[in-house]
Design a protein that fits this description.
It is a single chain. The protein has three domains: about 90 residues, Orthogonal Bundle (Fumarase C, Chain B, domain 1), CATH 1.10.275; about 220 residues, Fumarase/aspartase (Central domain) (Fumarase C, Chain A, domain 2); about 60 residues, Orthogonal Bundle (Ribonucleotide Reductase Protein R1, domain 1). It has a two-stranded antiparallel sheet with strand order 1-2. Strands 3-4 form a two-stranded parallel sheet. Strands 5-6 form a two-stranded antiparallel ribbon. It is built from 18 helices and six strands. It is mainly alpha-helical. It is elongated and about 105 Å long. It is about 60% helix and about 5% strand. It starts with 9 loop residues before the first helix and ends with a helix. Keywords: Lyase, Purine biosynthesis. Its EC number is 4.3.2.2. GO terms for molecular function: (S)-2-(5-amino-1-(5-phospho-D-ribosyl)imidazole-4-carboxamido) succinate lyase (fumarate-forming) activity; N6-(1,2-dicarboxyethyl)AMP AMP-lyase (fumarate-forming) activity. It comes from Fervidobacterium islandicum. This is Adenylosuccinate lyase.
Length: about 425
């Protein structure tokens, strides 16, 4: 956990105390199930709950001796218990408790993350509507292409986020599984009935087949979805970073009162939040790689996955939540310089209308190849000289003969490129 990037409520979810509380939650659910099937006397779970004390320091002190965290947990929590302690961890193996408790943590973390995604989606949609009619220059390969709607940037991000919300909702249901089937998953010392009852109390389902652990494809799937979400956030961040470049300056991430951009240069306003998000997206992809590596374990299990997951499960969920919350802040407070957006369309002195001229010549009867060669000739000249593309074209007699003055003027209007934007928005009307 990096304190700098740890936000509540996920920060508290992954404390050591919270981990032990989840372990106790699982143990109690099993005892309650034993009561229902007649293995443990009625009231056993209540007695355990009353006498169980989670003392983190005591657990860690015992672990220094036994070198096993679950055994240390059991010894510490049952210290003050009487005969009821016989049913604590009865028929279970450590992974029953740890894996099922991890599922609880991941489900709860994912619920928080989904809520954050929904809040971000509202902000993106609002910005998409606000800038729907603002013409901007579209860029491909970083080069001016043709005018488009500035709002479509936000709508594109919104559409991708909606897909990721549905993906995460689906995987949230998938990971809501537990395993209470004993040392190698064959129910030798605990019954499937007890597992089903206990997991229902926890809001989980039994994984269909387990070894000593729950198969790690569940976790790999979840974190791969996180990586997809992080990829979207990186796409947003990189776009804003480019738009904030001094030569472009169409948008700028928020810069708070009193904030400093550089220790040396007082004038600097740097896209530090976008750059931070870009770096975090790299981390998220690395977490996914670790999750995939954890899938292949020896036989019924080894613990090569365990140490990795102690890093990856808290860090991936907390990083994902941080990225979403900061992206929402970024979009909510993004500065858009509308006049600069419009002005930049004309930086190339009309070259971005080349396809409209090409198609107008084709419509007027010129072959496409001949029209392309003619338009490109003047376009390349204007690239070199900085002359007006519009005036250069108008000096050509063939173009004058084929395209009227009125039609020619219409070819250089940016509003034309927004004529079907409304139909795109209709796909997302709430």
């Amino acid at each position: 956990m990096v304190e700098r990037y740890a936000l509540e409520p996920l920060k508290s979810l992954w404390t050591l105390k919270a981990q032990y509380e989840r372990w106790l939650e699982v143990e109690l659910a099993v005892v309650e199930a034993y009561e229902e099937v007649g293995i443990a006397p009625r009231g056993t779970a209540e007695k355990i709950k009353d006498k169980a004390v989670i003392d983190v320091d005591d657990i860690l002190a015992i672990e220094q001796i036994v070198d096993h965290d679950v055994i240390a947990f059991i010894k510490s929590v049952t210290k003050n218990m009487g005969d009821e302690a016989r049913y604590f961890h009865y028929g279970l193996t450590s992974s029953d408790v740890v894996d099922t408790a991890n599922s609880l943590a991941l489900v709860r973390a994912t619920d928080v993350i989904i809520e954050s995604m929904l809040r971000l989606s509202d902000v993106l949609y609002e910005k998409a509507l606000r800038y729907k009619s603002l013409p901007t220059i579209g860029r491909t390969h970083g080069i001016h292409a043709e005018p488009t709607s500035f709002g479509l940037k936000f709508l594109s991000w919104y559409a991708e986020l909606l897909r990721n919300i549905e993906r995460l909702k689906a995987v949230r249901e998938e990971i809501a599984v537990g395993k209470l089937s004993g040392a190698v998953g064959n129910y030798a010392n605990i019954s499937p009935e007890v597992e089903k009852i206990a997991l229902q109390k926890l809001g989980l389902k039994p994984t269909p087949v387990a070894t000593q652990v729950i198969s790690r494809d569940y976790i790999a799937h979840l974190i791969s979805i996180f990586a997809l979400i992080a990829g979207l956030i990186e796409r947003i961040a990189i776009e804003i970073r480019h738009l904030q470049r001094t030569e472009v300056l169409e948008a700028m991430e928020p810069f708070k009162e009193g904030q400093r951009g550089s220790s040396a240069m007082p004038h600097k306003k740097n896209p530090i939040l976008c750059e931070r998000l870009t770096g975090m997206a790299r981390l998220m992809r690395s977490y996914a790689q670790v999750a995939f590596e954890n899938m292949a374990l020896w036989h019924e299990r080894d613990i090569s996955h365990s140490s990795a997951e102690r890093y990856v499960l808290p860090d991936s969920t907390m990083t994902m939540y941080y990225m979403l919350e900061k992206t929402r802040y970024l979009i909510e407070n993004l500065k858009v310089f509308e006049e600069r957006v419009k002005k930049n369309i004309d930086l190339t002195h009309g070259l971005v209308y080349s396809q409209r001229v090409l198609l107008a010549l084709v419509e007027a009867g010129m072959s496409r190849e001949e029209a392309y060669i003619l338009v490109q000739k003047y376009a390349l000249q204007c690239w070199e000289t900085g002359e007006s593309f519009k005036e250069k074209l108008r000096s050509d007699t063939r173009i004058n003969q084929l395209i009227s003055d009125e039609k020619f003027e219409e070819l250089f209007r940016p509003d034309y490129y927004l004529r079907n934007v409304e139909q795109i928005y209709e796909r997302f009307q709430k």
